[in-house]
Write the C-alpha cells for this entry.
Amino acid sequence: MSGVTPGFVTGANAKIRVGNITLAYCQDCSYNVTVTTIPIEACGKYEVISNEPVAYFVDGSLSVIRYTEKAVGMSGVDSSGNGVGNWKLNGNDGEGAKGFNPGDLLNSETWDLEIYQKHSTGNVQVIKLTDCRFTRKGSAINKRGVLVENFQFNAILASDDSFTASTSGDTDLATS
C-alpha cells in the first residue's frame, strides 16, 4: 500500500531529538506529567469544595543502544560513537557529559527533547519537553544482548501538538 500516510506515531516512524542531535538507536522514550492538587475545604461542609493545582512536574526516561567509534561501517551513525560525552546539546561540545561530571554540574545546561513523526512530506513535531536536565544514568548488558544506556531526566514543561502551553512562556508547536 504505497502512498498511504501513517496515522499513528510508532517506533518505526518516530524521530527523537535531544538538544540539537537526533539520537541514533534510541529504543525507548517515555515521560510523565504530574499535577499535584490540594483539597480546598470550607466550614460547614463535609465534602471538599474543589481540588486546586499547586505544582507541575515533568520527568522521563530514554534508553539508547550504545555503539563506539569502531562501528563506523554502520549506516546512519556518528563516527565518534553515541556516548553521552559526544552529545553536543545546544551546539556545545560534549555538553551531555557535564550533567554527570561532578566538576561540571553547575556549568551544565538544559536541553529540549522533541519527538517527531516522520512523513514523506517532512517531519511533524508531536511532543516537546522543555528545559530538561539529566538526573540518572545507568546501563545494562547481558550475555546475548547489546549495551543499553538508560537515562532519566526532569523537565520544566511538556507540550504536544494537541495543546499549547503558552501561559508558561512556551511557544506554540505549530510555529516553532
About this structure: The first helix runs from residue 95 to 98. Strands lie at 14-18, 21-22, 26-40, 50-65, 111-119, 122-140, 148-155, 157-160. Residues 39 and 51 are 4 Å apart (CA to CA). The two ends are 32 Å apart (CA to CA).
